[in-house]
Design goal:
The complex is a heterodimer of chains A (about 325) and B (about 375). By secondary structure, chain A is α+β, with helices and mostly antiparallel strands. Chain A is built from eleven helices and nine strands. Chain A starts with 7 loop residues before the first helix and ends with a helix. The chains are: A alpha+beta (about 325), B alpha+beta (about 375).
Chain lengths: ~325, ~375
């Protein structure tokens, strides 16, 4: 899928880290998330850096990158908790720009993979892309009804297509191919985000355990706390490695069932990491004034949004059937 | 000599043809066959990869040994008899031994003519290895070694034992330890089989009563022992993860096959609980496979430090989950050494399950690994 050089992903990661540190700093994270739905500074810088054409072909002015680069980018988005319709805009729109004019790079895109699905940021999206039975099209006049959420970095909404018109931009077999690619790469992106969130939670915990003093010493000097944080590092590595496996499957056209199962596994492990971070932080981590809860709720939502069916159970059933 | 990585097809064909399939379970009968197997691997030119050409090897890069062990695991071929020599003592001699030591010890070690064991743990020094009590007293021309070692893998078959002994009792405990190569045919060296909970006796207790060891059998300098031991343990963790990951994957295939057999026989329900566990074990293995692929890069560059402990924890977690599944599906036959359903192999899966419980104890217990990760990888303060 990707013809990019192996260190291209590292370059993307470096550049993303630099841009997001500047435009979506985690200093004052909660103020930023409360002040704006979409992290605008980061969004505009992303458009400038070409992130929204990361997956587009060169004919559409894109970078033609693949799943490894996508994973690297989303790991940084997760680490910085940058808010916005990143997955739909980078992945769905990125792939569709080869087929249709979706407006300026800064456009906020929502993607409705099936009727009734919850779409993040649909209420503020400039363009709503809809997967129909035989096509992918752009919807006009759709009604997006925001759903309140505990997650501070996503703005979920339900989409009502009654009375909307949909203009098909890809049809037939090609539409099916693009929809499958979107689903696979969206899983790569969300796994990357999970890995970034888990990494951030681990870093915060190591730092806090070194600073917080109880019984006259930093709590990180206590073996009970050390062992918990060490296991967080182990589980964080499991998330990273599951991400690598998800990237490999996306690049090798591995089956959807396998990729979905690995996503469920990765999300469960990321959840373990952020919940351990809460335990390390104790009472302050449970307080709304501390940013940790934003990471926790984001992980819980990411676990839920791709939780269609029970992929691990289904895959086990397939393996047993032989 | 062509690089091993370019001869994989040839190696796989060879293994498919030559791997012994009828090894007896009984260890005393099995061991000579494992020696024979090692000789065959060596004489066919496979075992020399990754070892210096001037000392009986074929040259080649640092990952060649790992490639070979992975292919052996994939072919479900037995591990050669001299594994402690090949994985622990040999690499140490290659890096830290003298030319004379390498010339003397490496060729017979590779060919399986001399089997090695490793005398590190003691009854009173397990996790706290630096507290070991075995003494090596300096005398004219060598050392007199006295003490007791335990959990000595393959001790009863070993001609040589790499022994950690205290050469200087007057300095801090980590600094007074040396690594000596002890000839187990020496007067005063004895082994006693130690039966494990699996019923096998892979280990021995090893007793040294005033055993003389000549100066030329000291590895490195006096007092280097602790650092050599840390280096050995860190270096064996990476390759262990890569090889073990394949062995667990092969085990998992057997478990799924067994589950189908048991479902067909009506003694196992193909329900949501079973499916979920099978799916989860599959995902854990794919995760571990991706981790091991990343590890290979570090093995090439030789830059794997304390973070190898993270790999040890991951592989242990997966191993224990997978073999627990293999055990649990036996249902009412769990713990039996004979089959209620033909082909269910309750003996093997019970043994594998019990053995998997040792994974969080050997090579540094899980608690030791967590301490290493917390302090040396993450930089948390020492207590």
């Amino acid at each position: 899928m990707s013809a990019a050089a192996p260190d291209y992903a590292q370059e993307i990661q470096r550049s993303a880290r630099e841009i997001l540190a500047r435009t979506a700093s985690t200093e004052g994270l909660l103020e930023r998330l409360r002040a704006e739905d979409v992290s605008r500074g980061a969004w505009d810088a992303a458009a400038q850096a070409g992130w929204f054409r990361l997956l587009s072909g060169e004919a559409a002015g894109g970078l033609g990158a693949g799943p490894a680069e996508l994973a690297a980018l989303f790991r940084e988005i997760g680490r910085h908790l940058a808010a916005g319709p990143w997955v739909d805009t980078v992945v769905a729109a990125g792939l569709l720009r080869d087929h249709a004019d979706l407006g300026p790079d800064t456009a906020l895109i929502g993607y409705l993979p099936e009727p009734g699905a919850v779409v993040e940021f649909a209420a503020v999206a400039d363009v709503l892309v809809v997967r129909g039975p035989d096509s992918i099209g752009l919807a006009r006049g759709a009604l997006a009804m925001p759903l309140k959420s505990f997650d501070l970095a996503g703005r979920p909404a339900q989409v009502d297509l009654t009375g909307a018109t949909v203009e098909a931009v890809v049809e037939g077999a090609e539409a099916e191919r693009v929809a499958v690619a979107i689903a696979r790469l969206a899983r790569v992106a969300r796994s990357g985000e999970l890995a970034g969130l888990a990494a951030a939670a681990l870093d915060m915990s190591v730092r806090y355990a070194g600073e917080r003093v109880q019984f006259d010493r930093p709590i990180g000097a206590f073996q009970a706390v050390q062992h918990r944080i060490a296991e967080m590092a182990v589980t964080r590595t499991a998330v990273d490695s599951a991400l690598a496996a998800i990237v490999t499957l996306a690049a090798s056209e591995g089956t959807d069932a396998e990729q979905a199962a690995l996503y469920e596994y990765a999300a469960g492990e990321a959840r373990t990491v952020v919940l351990s971070a809460l335990q390390v932080h104790g009472g302050i981590g449970f307080s709304a004034e501390h940013p940790l809860h934003a990471y926790i709720k984001r992980v819980l939502r990411l676990q839920a949004v791709a939780g269609e069916g029970e992929p691990l159970l289904d895959l086990g059933g397939r393996l047993l059937a032989g | 000599m062509k690089p091993l990585a370019d001869r994989l097809d040839e190696l796989r064909d060879w293994l498919a043809r030559e791997t012994p399939r009828d090894l007896p379970y009984d260890l005393d009968a099995r061991f000579p066959r494992l020696v024979e197997w090692q000789r065959k691997l060596y004489d066919a030119g496979w075992l020399g990869y990754g070892w210096p050409a001037e000392f009986g090897g074929n040259g080649g890069g640092p990952t060649d040994k790992v490639i070979l062990s992975v292919e052996l695991a994939r072919a479900a071929a037995p591990v050669p008899a001299g594994t402690i020599g090949l994985e622990v003592i040999g690499p140490t001699l290659t890096r830290f031994g003298t030319d004379a030591q390498r010339r003397r010890f490496l060729p017979p070690m590779l060919r399986g003519d001399e089997i090695w064991s490793q005398g590190f743990s003691e009854p009173e020094a397990g996790s706290d290895l630096a507290s070991l009590r075995t003494r090596a007293e300096k005398v004219e021309g060598g050392y007199i070694v006295s003490g007791r070692k335990t959990w000595t893998s393959w001790g009863q078959f070993a001609r040589w034992c790499g022994v950690l002994a205290r050469t200087d009792p007057d300095v801090p405990k980590h600094k007074g330890i040396s690594l000596l190569m002890v000839d187990m045919e020496s007067e005063g060296a004895q082994t006693f089989p130690l039966v494990q909970m699996t019923g096998d006796a892979e280990f021995t207790e090893t007793l040294f009563e005033r055993v003389f060891v000549p100066d030329e059998n000291l590895v490195g300098q006096p007092g280097d022992g602790w650092n050599l031991a840390l280096d050995i343990l860190a270096h064996e963790r990476g390759p262990l993860v890569v090889r073990r990951q394949v062995e667990i994957a092969v085990g998992f295939e057997g478990i799924v096959e067994n589950a189908r057999r048991l479902v067909a026989a009506g003694v196992l329900a193909d329900d949501a609980r079973l499916r979920e566990r099978v799916g989860r074990a599959w995902a854990q293995l794919r995760m571990l496979e991706a981790y091991a692929a990343g590890l290979m890069g570090h093995l090439v560059h030789g830059d794997l430090g304390p973070e190898a402990s993270i790999g040890k924890r991951l592989v242990t977690e997966v191993e224990q989950a997978v073999f627990e599944l293999g055990f649990d599906i036996l249902g009412a036959s769990r713990g039996l050494a004979e089959d209620a359903v033909p082909g269910m192999n309750a003996d093997k899966w019970t043994r594998d399950y019990l053995y998997s419980r040792a994974a969080s104890i050997y090579g540094g217990a899980a608690e030791i690994q967590r301490g290493i990760i917390a302090q040396r990888v993450l930089g948390l303060p020492r207590a």
